[in-house]
Amino acid sequence: MTYSSLFRSEEMSLIQLYIPSEMAQPTVAELGELGLIQFRDLNPDVNAFQRAFVSQIRRFDEMERRLRFFTVQIEKLEIPIRPLTGDASAVRARSVLEIDELEEQINVYERRITQLNNSYESMQKRYLRLTEQRHVLKETGVFLEQAESRQEDIRQSFDEPTTPLLGHADLEQGPSGTTGFNQLNLGFVTGVIPRKKMQTFERVLWRVLRGNLYLNYAEIDEPIVDPSTDEVVEKNVFIIFAHGKVLLDKIRKISESLGATLYPVDDSPDRRRASLLDITTQIEDLSAVIQTTNNARRTELTKIAENLTAWMTIIKKEKAVYHTMNLFNYDVTRKCLIAEGWCPRNDLPKIHGAIRTATENFGSNVSAILNELRTTKEPPTFHRVNKFTSGFQEIVDAYGVAKYREVNPGLFTIITFPFLFAVMFGDFGHGFLLTLAGLYLILNEKKFEREKLDEIFEMFFGGRYIILLMGLFSIYTGLIYNDIFSRAVQIADSGFEWQWPENYTVGQAVEAVQVGVYPFGVDPAWHGADNSLIFINSYKMKMSVVFGVIQMSFGIALTVFNYTYFKKKLSIWTEFLPQMLFMQSIFGYLVFTIIYKWSMNWSETDSDGQLIRHSPPGLLNMLIYMFLQPGTVAPDDELYPGQANVQLGLLIVAFICIPWMLLAKPLILRHEHHKIRAMGYRRPLEDTSIATEEDIDFGASSSMPEEMHEEEGFDFGEHMIHQVIHTIEFCLGCISNTASYLRLWALSLAHAQLSAVLWDMTLKTVLGISGVLGAFALVVAFALWFSLTIGILLIMEGLSAFLHALRLHWVEFNNKFYEGTGIKFEPFSFKSIVKDKDD
After folding, report:
1. Residue 60 contacts by C-beta under 8 Å, 6 or more apart in sequence?
2. Greater model confidence, 496 or 808
3. How many whole angstroms separate alpha carbon 526 and alpha carbon 598?
4. Paired strand residues for 344
5. How far apart are CA 7 and CA 431, in angstroms?
6. C-alpha span between 399 and 819 (Å, rounded)
7. Residues in a beta bridge with 262
8. Whole-number CA gyration radius for the chain
9. How far apart are CA 135 and CA 187, in angstroms?
10. 282: which residues sit within 8 A by CB, 6+ positions away?
11. pLDDT digits (tens, 9 = 90+) for 254-300
């Protein structure tokens, strides 16, 4: 058994399972609980509708549909659904008999709920009709009773040909006349219409009937609930008077087309009152029945809500089991299922244990048989992570999944990512707030894991340990920079002493003389000095180059581990060695000169008080003239004795490395190819082929003919083109990548200056105000400063630094050694299936 490490992915094994048909469901269910096998599809040419277990999947689809129906009904009544408890046995995969019982139970509940819903809906519709009819009788009774006093007005309006029947005043006051309608040959239509359609209703009637009608309406104050949508609808009662049957028929058709409901009303007041009394009694009786039905429905749904989550989880698991079994093949006798899949080699004992457990629980004497197959197929990549390392591994996987057994950058990202972030974000106060945010998420992680989080917060919660480390590293770099909310703190005696003149005047320049060395970080004397920005800029710029060259050199060094593991020893001499020499000859030398310049005391004097050394030379000009004037260094620009010869030698080494990288590997491979062809071999094994330790263990042949792949013939032109591209990319990348690390300096400077500006424009302006006004101003300024610090400096600047640190790892670091062309290991796991469907 090999040792598990984040340095490389886990060693994988291709396994084959022979599972008796009666044992297939419990065995696959137990393996799903274990979550360690990625099954392969052995029926790639069979479509989804022709697989062996389609009928079972459709059965579970139907059960899942019923559970979703229950969920909608429960949410509509606002009944709380009981979440899953910690008891895993409640949601374990069930046997066939238990599934049959569960299906029958769900069917019974569905019939009950459907019957209650139908009864409730029909009674609601009847209640709606009775309620509307009551309002129609009530309002039209008022209209018709008012008609007694206005019969003469109506006659006059009919006798006057130019008088419209639908006048503004009449719309406000209503029509008149319940008696004498027969003499006038006047009929009416009554009903209820949605209020939002009332205006359209009036206009259509006016235009179609050309004003030959008399309309009045009243608003219904009582809320009317539509039983089909359970939404409150505002409605109006209307009554329309018109001449003749033809006009009345037109009014009825127009009303129904606009969604109105028509109700007949008797001319007799006595019969109207009797109808109103009868309808009121029916409404009271119906309300009691509706309440009883609703209580019965709520009781049933409350029982369902107790088990709904568990049922849904069980159905999802069972459905996933049969989806997985559709990937298997039957043997010749169709009494056994054959499955193949990838699993971590270290977990083979756990898989054997899961198979034994499934056999014992099922009570069978025959268990599944597991064989380990030999193959040359590239396995998927699996990194064993925990809640601390998973966030960092996700950062790497977002760039590209590691090739199988390739060196994993995720191990180094745990330290380098938060450190480079902190270099750009360095402030003790801001780092402290970031650490508190990370600690809050970590201390409440069990609470948040049980809750359903929104997408943004879930992303922050998943990176809680990244946030914690970023905060801790920012505290450290903040102490180095001596920045605490842009203020300096003196924890020891300063290394500088200010030379104050006797007759000091405001605005006069004062120099500080170095009398010692500050024990930790930047001396607080630099804060507030006129040349502090020049000093800090120079320090952070050089520091960024040093960190960049170190990280890139480390990335180049990691290629040795890949070349050694994959048996590419030729690449060590033809790629790693010239690349490392090229990098160190130019940029490694630049780092050396930076550290050398820092280590020298350029202000040291002799006994006569004269400077021993000339002023320090500019390193940027030194690097430029190293190429423009090789072997020549001006005396005033000399950093150390013999500098010209050293630079000339390094330049020669760098130029030699370019054809070394470009030509050595293709020419050697070509020579080996011709040498082997001369010995009579047709398909030589080349350095470009992948030969892993697993291949040696498995052997050259595979038990599956379709997995055998033929070696390609040697193509010198293809190798040469690849090497040219690789050489140009590396040489230019060394320059551009080194310059890219200057973002560490730029963002650090921007963060510090923005923090200082925020302090000066908020708190600094009110610190001199005294009294009650000063206290009030201080509170307001502090609230403004703190909110802007959180919103701008922590969230916006923090996100900016995070993205730049991400880019430095993806582009500048990973491309030195990391291919990222692997396939991620995605095992059949109930835990991930249930979580994905919940999301």
Report:
1. 315, 318, 319, 322
2. 808
3. 17
4. 12
5. 29
6. 10
7. 191
8. 42
9. 20
10. 130
11. 998 988 989 888 877 888 888 889 988 998 999 899 899 999 999 99
In angstroms, rounded to a whole number, what is the distance separating the alpha carbons of residues 100 and 227? 35
Side-chain half-sphere exposure of 789, counting CA atoms within 13 A: 24
Which pLDDT score is estimated for 2? 67
pLDDT at residue 837, rounded to an integer? 58
Spatial contact of 382 and 4, defined as CB atoms under 8 Å apart = no
> What DSSP string describes 471-523?
HHHHHHHHHHHT-BTTB----S--SEEE---TT--TT----EEE-S--SSSS-
β-pairing verdict for 38-39 and 369-373:
unpaired
What 649-658 contacts at long range (C-beta under 8 Å, 24+ apart), as own/partner pairs, is: 650/585, 650/586, 650/589, 651/585, 651/626, 651/627, 653/581, 653/582, 653/585, 654/581, 654/582, 654/585, 654/586, 656/578, 657/578, 657/579, 657/581, 657/582, 657/585, 658/578, 658/582, 658/727, 658/731
pLDDT over threshold 60, residue 250: yes
Strand partners, 496: 514
Q: Which two tokens stand for residue 247?
A: 């006009």
**What is the token pair recorded at 831?**
């835990």
Distance CA(229)–CA(118), nearest Å, equals 14
Does pLDDT of 87 surpass 70? no
At residue 239, the pLDDT reads 86
Contact criterion met (CB below 8 Å) for 9 and 346: no
Query: Is a pLDDT exceeding 50 seen at residue 708?
Result: no
pLDDT for the residue numbered 4 = 78
Gap between the Cα atoms of 826 and 41, Å rounded? 13
Scanning the structure block, which residue is given the tokens 């429960």?
Answer: 74
The amino acid at 230: D
Beta strands per DSSP E along 553-637: none
* Euclidean distance between CA atoms 424 and 417, whole angstroms: 11
Cβ proximity of 407 and 28 under 8 Å = no
Single out the residue of 482, 468, 485 nearest to residue 417, CA to CA: 468
Find all residues with CB under 8 Å of 103, minimum gap 6, and list them.
59, 63
Looking at the DSSP assignment, which residues form a beta bridge with residue 340?
16
Is pLDDT above 70 for 678? yes
Q: What is the share, in percent, of the chain residues with pLDDT greater than 90?
A: 52
Long-range contacts of 463-466 (CB under 8 A, 24+ apart): 463/391, 464/391, 464/438, 465/387, 465/388, 465/391, 465/438, 466/391, 466/392, 466/395, 466/417, 466/418, 466/438
- Average pLDDT (777-804) is 94
Distance separating alpha carbons of residues 375 and 704, to the nearest angstrom = 8
Which of 221-230, 736-745, 803-812 has the lowest average pLDDT? 221-230
Percentage of the residues of the chain whose pLDDT score is greater than 70? 89
Is pLDDT of 253 > 80?
yes
